[in-house]
Structure formats: structure tokens, C-alpha cells
């Protein structure tokens, strides 16, 4: 069957809509390839599309020329929303905001089933309530090693390790070939949540004739292995055990493993753990409901912090990227209702500095230091107060060696990360490496190529 090209007239613009034939297997990133955040990927085969992830970024400009930023930003879904009858489903790999955060805002444009695991489904349902979509979105829960037929795509879920409960990659099988989409992952042999990374399922893929591996590139510039979440627990314990004043830890609300680590640290150091911020309390509540929060780790109400001696305070807050409306910024401005900080208290940044956020973080640190409140970032200490949830080069090498794909497709990273991932794949004897950007059409079958900028892409503001 020949490829079909349809033209739509929309707001006085002509838009070309690509439709894959039965012989075609396509990969089309709309967001997250050439940047970190706002992941949105499409697979095309036999007249249908499957979306993998639908995420956001925070405090980003909508274009390179935009001097201002918008608070919540996602990839423009216009290409697929204008042919939503061909979108057979949306698969969410895990519950981090850059993979699921846009879905509640965009689902009305798609109106198709969502497939994900129990924890991510719980997080998603809470988000849907907030946008008036209670019980309106069909969510199909899946488990490790389970397979689902979604239109012309057969999807199987494979368990990984990451910094959040139930992170999954998946194989996506069609009559034109099979793809392994990694999602976010690392090789963690001592995770605080879930089982240790097991290579068994991935070694088995070598016998499965994987055509392409679409792979996380975030740490592809870093040698070695990413440290374990257990190492981070040890580093935070040593850091906080030495303190005599209040300690505040800024981290991502969705990093449940880090929250569990801090709960254990509080217990070991005689402190009381409190969470300040709705996103944090929601995430821990979802972890409790799905059995991922240990029963022996209590959390107190944030309103009680003001009654405690300073040496018993351990507060976890959002805003580690310098977001102006987040709790860390309010603490720096002495404008947080639940907690006030004094000179010589300590603020720990237990999160990576996402590229592009450096100036906002530095301004926040300067504000704390202006009040003689101490701060500690990961690059300022030899102790492990933050570890990444993404694979470094040796981990990438191992996964390529186990899976043995014919094609490597680096995603989830800036251009330098994608190039570094492709370099690892080449050194790992993967025959072909395809490096592209959002809007490029990766043709995986019947022939292999990248057609540059076949789809117009951009960003839209979900909250200004």
C-alpha cells in the first residue's frame, strides 16, 4: 500500500498529515528529543499511531526568541490531535512529570485509552480530578511482563529500576518489526523501592530480533555507572546526622525513593519528617495506596513544625530548580506559612541542576545566603546527597550488549547527550545509529532513514 498524504486546512495554514502504510514502522518524537523534559513520542504503523508518554517542563520559554517563560509547558500535540481517530492509545512509562504531567491537560484532544501500571494510574487519577476529568478517562492498568494489543501494536511491559515506583520499558511489536522503548532507567542493584535491576528479560530480547532500541540519553556524557539510591541514603544520613539546626531538603516531588530515604534518615537521626507542598503529599498518598510507602515511616503535619526544637525538624519541599512559586522560593523569602528558617539552618538541594535552570537556582541560593541560611548542593560535597535515575555510559553499553538491536535511537536529552548515546551504541557494535530532533520522522521499515522536520513541532503553555 502506498503512503498517503492528507491535507488539512486549519487557521489559514496547510498542514500535511503523514499516515503510515502496513509496510511502514515509524518513530516520531514531538517532544523530549533534543531537550530534557516534555516527552511525547509517536509510533506509526498500518494507518495507526501509538503515543508513548505525554509530559511537561517547568518555567520554559515557548520559543528560543521568547524572553519570558511559562510556568508549565508541553510539546505541541497538534499533529496527532488533528488525526486523533488514528491514535489507538497512550502508554505512560512512569509517573514523573516529564512523562505524564501534560496528559490531564491534553486528554480531551485525544480521547483514547491510557495504559500504565497501578502506581502511575493512581497518580494520574489524582491529576485528572484536578482538571475535572474524574472517571472520564479509560485507564487500563498493566503489570510486569503483561502484554496488550493496542490497535495494530502489541505492547509488552518490562520492569526497570529508576527513582520512582513501577518504572517500565516496553517492547512494541508490529508486523513490520519490533522496537524496545526503554523509558527512564538505570541499573540499580540496591534500590530503595522495588526489586533490583534484573538483566534476564533484556538478555532474552537478543533472541527477539529487536529492530530498534529507543533509549534514554540523559547521562550519556558520564563515564561509569550511576550510583544507587542506597548510596544516596547513606550520604544524606551522614550529612543530616551532623546537623544541630533545622534541615530542609529540596527534591522532586515524584522522587518517591528519595522521600523514603529521607523518612529513614529522620528515623535514624531523631527528627520528624514533614512534607510541604500538595504535590509531595499527593505522591506519598499514592505510594501508600499502592503499597510502596513503608508502614514504619511516619510523617507529621507541616503545621506542627513550628512547635518542634530546631534539631528535630526535617522538612522536604519542592522548588529545587528555583521555581518562583514553589516552597523553597517562599522559604527563601521568609514567606512560607508552615515553616520559618533562621541563620545557620541548612537547605540541601537533593536534585540535579536541570540544564537551563542554573541561573534560577543560583538566585535562590544567593537569597538564602543573604539571610545567613546555609545551602548544600551535590557538587559542593563528597557525600552522595543526590544520585541520578538515568544510565551512565557503562550501563548503556551493557543494555546495548544485552538487547543487540539493529538500530539505536537516542532520545531524552539535549543534542550533546544524543550524540554521546549514539557513540556508545557504535562502540557497542550496534549496526546503525539514528540521531534526530523533535519533528524528524524516523523510518525503521521497510527502509531505514531519518526524514528531517517532517512535522511542525513547538511548545504550548498549559499555565502561564
TrEMBL record:
Alphabetical keyword list: Exonuclease, Hydrolase, Metal-binding, Nuclease, RNA-binding, Zinc
GO molecular function, one term: exonuclease activity
InterPro entries: Metallo-B-lactamas, RibonucZ/Hydroxyglut_hydro, RMMBL, RNase_J_2, RNase_J_b_CASP
Pfam family, one: RMMBL
Ranges for domain Metallo-beta-lactamase: 37-236
CDD domains: RNaseJ_MBL-fold
PANTHER family attached to this UniProt entry: RIBONUCLEASE J
UniProt-recorded name of the protein: Ribonuclease J
Organism, as annotated: Marinomonas arctica
